[in-house]
Amino acid sequence: MTYTLSDVLKDVGATVDQDASDPTGTELTNRIQFANRSQEDWARSYKWKELSTPWAPTVLVSMVSIGLPGDFNEFDGPIYDASLTSDNQYKLIGPSDKIRKTSTEKYAIVRGNLVSGKYLEIHPALASGVSLVGDYQSFPSSLTSLNEQPLAPREYMAKRIGYYVLEARSDSRFPIFKSDSEQTLLELIESQDSPSEAEDNRVPDWANKTGFRIGRD
């Protein structure tokens, strides 16, 4: 269920200040900053389905590097050349692992930083017309106004913002809000990791993998 920043700040106010109205002035500015910090905490804590973003750049010329989107955080998994049916995976490695790779191995390294931008270094060089595909974790857009919709769950946002508000005031309740927000985060991670009823939750064993049946083999 979607909600706005106004909704969550009213939740915070009702709990922290016993006032369920929108903050104003400097207090509003501070709480929007706390909301962005809270959403960033959530985004960095796990690979969330909500932040998984398809990536399919256009490769018009041969190249060894390609720019990454401005909201790029990290890749969800390997990168593939969709124009091939075999040997089509580019394994993501760290810069220090490059020395152990041969000139023919397919691999990629994320380089750059948040200030100048990030890019993907790819080996061997990409040929013109290659169809790269992958998924990456994006950074949520910054919240700037009350009518915007955060991506992080409402309950977590309210508790985490409440923690930052109380910590800034040196209020003795802030450790409780911090602990509650961390517990809620763990529950969110567990919920995402747990398959739904529509998913197959069985772990295949050796017999299932090989088609072995008692009395037949």
The total domain count is 2
- Radius of gyration based on Cα positions: 23 Å
Which spans have pLDDT < 50 for at least 5 consecutive residues? 201-217
Extended strand count: 8
> How many angstroms does the end-to-end distance come to?
52 Å
Overall pLDDT, averaged?
A: 89
How large is the share of residues in beta strands? 15-25%
- Global shape: elongated
The quaternary organization reads as single chain
Backbone structural class: alpha+beta
Q: In terms of topology, how is this protein built?
A:
Elements: H1 5-16, H2 25-45, E1 52-55, E2 63-67, E3 72-75, E4 79-81, E5 89-92, E6 107-113, E7 117-126, E8 132-138, H3 154-168, H4 174-193, H5 206-210
Parallel strand pairs: 5-6
Antiparallel strand pairs: 1-8, 2-7, 3-8, 4-5, 4-8, 6-7
Helix pairs in contact: 1-3, 2-3, 3-4
Description:
By secondary structure, this protein is an alpha+beta fold. It has two domains: 5-48 and 140-166 and 174-193, no CATH class; 57-130, no CATH class. The chain is 34% helix and 20% strand. It has five helices and eight strands, in the order ααββββββββααα. The protein has helices at 5-16, 25-45, 154-168, 174-193, 206-210, and strands at 52-55, 63-67, 72-75, 79-81, 89-92, 107-113, 117-126, 132-138. Strands 1, 2, 3, 4, 5, 6, 7 and 8 form an eight-stranded mixed sheet that branches. β6 and β7 (117-126) form a beta hairpin. α2 (25-45) packs across α3. The longest helix has 21 residues, at 25-45. The N and C termini lie far apart (52 Å). The relative contact order is 0.19.
